[in-house]
Design the sequence.
């Protein structure tokens, strides 16, 4: 059973590695944030599998801490971290339209 759990953890880490490509080449901030969430979720899954396979409880606790940090990262993005470039672009477009001719 340990071999299966370690193999599953390696497979998850491989798929997360492919998700890193989206973070680097994502067309927008939302795509990058979703890829970062994938990274966090996959990291949590891999750490929990490794914790169960090796019997080390501290690895599972690190995985749960990573899940908590990923949730805070999403909240920070939604509340204002991802709007900065979009808001400035909307302000410049709105200012150009509101000028009288």
Sequence:
């Amino acid at each position: 059973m340990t071999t299966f759990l370690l193999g599953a953890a390696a497979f998850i880490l491989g798929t997360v590695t492919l998700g890193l490509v989206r973070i680097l080449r994502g067309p927008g901030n939302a795509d990058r944030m979703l890829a970062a969430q994938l990274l966090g979720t996959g990291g949590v899954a891999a750490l929990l599998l490794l914790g169960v396979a090796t019997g080390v409880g501290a690895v599972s606790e690190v995985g749960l801490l990573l899940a908590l940090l990923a949730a805070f990262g999403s909240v920070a993005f939604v509340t204002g971290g991802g709007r900065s470039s979009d808001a400035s672009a909307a302000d410049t477009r709105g200012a150009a339209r509101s000028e009288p001719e």
Notes: Helices lie at 2-25, 29-54, 57-81, 84-98. The chain has one domain: 2-91. DSSP finds four helices and no strands in the chain. Residues 29-54 form the longest helix (26 residues).
